Structure formats: C-alpha cells, structure tokens
Automatic annotation (TrEMBL):
Name the record gives this protein: Ketoacyl-ACP synthase III
Keyword annotations from UniProtKB, A to Z: Acyltransferase, Transferase
Gene Ontology biological process terms in this record: fatty acid biosynthetic process; secondary metabolite biosynthetic process
Organism from which the protein derives: Haloflavibacter putidus
Database matches in SUPFAM superfamilies: Thiolase-like
Taxonomic lineage from the root: Bacteria, Pseudomonadati, Bacteroidota, Flavobacteriia, Flavobacteriales
Domain of life: Bacteria
Gene3D superfamilies: 3.40.47.10
Span of the signal peptide: none
Length: 353
C-alpha cells in the first residue's frame, strides 16, 4: 500500500496588486511613529528582503471558503474520483471567512463544512473539520489524512489550505505587503502501488518562548480608537527561529526514511520570505556538507506573495502543471516539503512521485 496525492488543484485570485499600490500608504512603527524615509525607499528595501513584487487579493465578494471550494473541485476533477467517496474534508485555515470590509472572523460553521456544502456532498460519513496550525496547516492536514488512511478509517481525503490574509492586515504596518490570498487542495488516498507516496514526516510545536512570535494586535496607527485586531509578526525572531529549526526538522524527516539531501529532487518550502527560504535551503544542505543544486527550490512568492496555508499546495499545483520555469516533476522523484508558522509550528514531509 502506498498513500499518494492523486489529484491537486488551486484557486489563485486574478487580482494582482503590485508594490506600487503601497506608495501612498502611511507606514508606522509599532510605537506609532512614522517610519523615516520615502515609501519608495521602504518598498525597495521590502522587495530586496522578501523578493515580493506583487501579490494576489480575492475579489470583494469572494471568501476563503469560496476559494477553498474552487480549489477542491479542481483537485477532485484532477484525481478523477467520485466526491461521494471522500471520507474526510480537512481545511487548513487561520482566520475563517473574513468578508470584504469586515475584519470579524467567521468560522461557524467550519470552513470544511462550507466546502462540503458547496460541493453538494450527500454522504454523512464524509467528516468535515478545520485545522488551525499556522502556515504549516495544509501539510499538517496531509499528515493527518495519512494517519487516518494508515489506521484503516479512511481511504480518500480532501485536504485544503485557504486564506484571505488581505482582510486581516494593518495598512499602517509595512509587513502588510507580505500577505496575500489563495487556496490549494489535494486528494490523498490509498493506492495499489507498493512504493512511493508519503515516505516520512515530522512535526513540532515550540511554544515555551516562541508562542507569540505571530499574534493578533491593534493597528500601529495609535490615532485609531477601534478594537479591531490585525495579524502581527516579529519578523527578526521568526527569521532566526526558522533558520535553526526548519533545516533540522527537514533532516530528521529524511533520517526517518533513510535518505539524504542528495536523494531529494525538489524542495518545496512555505513561501514566506525569499531570503529566509534561500537561507533555510543553504542551512539544510550545510547539514550534509554540500550546496543546493541549481533549480532545487521552486519559488512563487515574487508574484503570489505569502498566502499562508495555501502556499505549499498552490506551489505544488503550479509545478505539477509545469507553470514555473525550469521546474517539473517526474515519476520516482523524491520531494521534501516543509513549513513554519504561528504557534510556532514546524513540519516536513518526504514524498515520492
């Protein structure tokens, strides 16, 4: 028995927001003071650090569960399965459905239940639930699906990552330029193949000192009297944490399966920050006294930004469909997926096509 991704799909909003859209923003420091320098300089530095030149925002009438449902339909079609045969619908999300111009989160019913409703799945034995695990949520959902199938309580699972981060950002925070919207989905199922599929995985939560590296706080504009909260992050601490913990988790995942870095064809890292991902990649290969091969790490962050739980499945979908230059996958290729995010949570998975 091999547990494999038999179908994948994504929903990437068409609305592209370029960096120039932030030229008129009033960026402030956490204490409310104005950030010195022109916005042109701030944006230039931002691009140099993150690699982001544009990001995608959902249409005003579209919610995270809408994006998730579209990605799910595409994954089901790609897998060629009957939707009624699904045992689980697992949706990774962090802020629920946030409607345009309304920062209040709505997660009742769960986004997974909304997706099941949208798909018109009648089977009551198809269980729908959400996963809140920070940016690594989609990969953690895949890990859970793998466990369900191994335990014999499921044969087919739909795992989705969906988010509309553009609706929980503080426009006075320059970090707001990082975040974007999107959704990706995959069908995980038991196959007749005896090799390949999910080979190993690793998950961890560091919360003694790291729990509040990502939080929900008031706007940096102290003149605002509202109680609305926005996503906030301690970028420097997250960067240092990721560079230490993520490569170690990736190596531990490989060790479990008895492989090394030289056996990996592609690295799929959560698209959070271009420089951070490049540094994680370098640190990982240093653990094996080697350097990253050319084109080892597909990247979508420059055009799509950071869509949290959606970045890994959308990236995988893009590469699977040969939509990224110099990136493709062949049968037998081993890929290593890894993510880091709020919690602070980390996970990694070794997968063979």
């Amino acid at each position: 028995m091999a547990i494999k991704i038999t179908g994948i799909g994504s929903c990437i909003p068409e609305n592209s927001v370029k960096n120039t859209a932030f030229l008129e923003s009033e960026f402030k420091n956490p204490d409310g003071s104005a950030i010195p320098g022109s916005n042109e300089t701030i944006i230039k530095k931002f691009r140099a650090i993150t690699g982001i030149k544009e990001r995608r925002y959902a249409d005003n009438k579209v919610t995270a569960s809408d994006l998730a449902s579209i990605a799910a339909e595409r994954a089901i079609e790609n897998a060629g399965i009957d939707k009624e045969s699904l045992d689980y619908v697992i949706v990774a999300q962090n802020f629920g459905d946030v409607r345009h111009k309304n920062t209040q989160s709505d997660a009742v019913p769960s986004l997974a239940s909304r997706v099941k409703h949208y798909l018109k799945i009648e089977n009551p034995s198809c269980v729908a639930y959400d996963v809140v695990f920070g940016c690594p949520g989609w990969l953690e959902g895949v890990i859970q699906a793998n466990a369900f199938i191994k335990a014999g309580i499921a044969k087919k699972c739909l795992v989705i990552g969906a988010e509309t981060l553009s609706r929980v950002i503080d426009k006075h925070d320059r970090d707001s330029m990082i975040f974007s919207d999107g959704a990706g989905a995959a069908i995980i199922e038991e196959t007749k193949d005896t090799s390949g599929g999910i080979l190993s995985h690793e998950s961890a939560t560091y919360s003694k000192n790291e729990a509040y590296y990502l939080t929900f706080e008031k706007s940096y504009n102290k003149e605002k009297q509202e109680e609305t909260r926005y996503i906030k992050m301690n970028g420097r601490k997250i960067y240092n944490f990721a560079l230490t913990r993520v490569p170690a988790a990736m190596k531990k995942c490989l060790d479990k399966a008895g492989f090394e870095a030289k056996d990996v064809k592609k690295l799929f890292l959560h698209q959070a920050n271009e420089k951070m991902d490049e540094a994680i990649c370098e640190r990982f290969y240093k653990l094996y006294d080697s350097a990253p091969p050319e084109h080892i790490m597909p990247m979508s962050i420059a055009e799509l930004g950071n869509s949290s739980v959606a970045t890994l499945p959308t990236l995988l979908d893009l590469v699977s469909r040969k939509q990224l230059k110099n990136q493709d996958l062949q049968p037998g290729d081993k890929i290593l997926l890894a993510s880091v995010g709020a919690g602070m949570n980390i996970n990694a998975m070794l997968y063979q096509y």
